[in-house]
Amino acid sequence: INKFYVLDLNPEKSFIRWCVAQGLTVFCISWVNPDARHAAKDFESYMREGIFAALDTIEEATGEKKVSAIGYCVGGTLLGVTLAYMAAVRDKRIESATFFTTQVDFAQAGELSVFVDEEQIRAIEEQMARTGYLDGARMAGAFNMLRPNDLIWNYVVNNYL
Q1: Can you tell me the distance from the alpha carbon of 28 to that of 26, in angstroms, rounded to the nearest whole number?
Q2: Which 8-state DSSP code applies to residue 150?
Q3: What percent of the chain has pLDDT over 70?
Q4: Which residues lie below 8 Å from residue 86, measured CB to CB, with a gap of 6+?
Q5: What is the Cβ-side half-sphere exposure of residue 100, based on CA atoms within 13 angstroms?
Q6: Which tens digits make up the pLDDT trace of 120-129?
Q7: ∠ at Cα 64 (85, 10), nearest 5°?
Q8: Which entry of 7, 51, 73, 79 is annotated as an active-site residue?
Q9: What is the pTM (predicted TM-score) of this model?
């Protein structure tokens, strides 16, 4: 879930390669899979240690003070929240933003609403309180359930036979 390399699958299927061919300099944030070591991290930590640190690094490496950003999946949700914060504090380092497969309006979550009702949220919060983090496998399992024929039953049948 949420790995940047989906944008760079191979030379023929690479959004990153296409961007570079258009003359853009591309930086990617590769998020670590969280575990108990990250229990004290919160959404603000990811904003400050992820997006803000990346903006600082880009400026140091290139001298550019403004960037165009892409947010993918949960990274896009984080980017959206970060943009709101940046607007509030008048930080204009992100000039434009594009979102790929990003949920920003959870009031109309579509098929994901099966997983974001109050009961499910409470269960996830309780599990996170015990472990200190949300295991990526649990999140992946929820997304797999959105396409069970392709992402679950195919493997069950093939491994059974």
Answers
A1: 7
A2: I
A3: 88
A4: 92, 93, 94
A5: 10
A6: 888 888 988 8
A7: 90
A8: 73
A9: 0.80
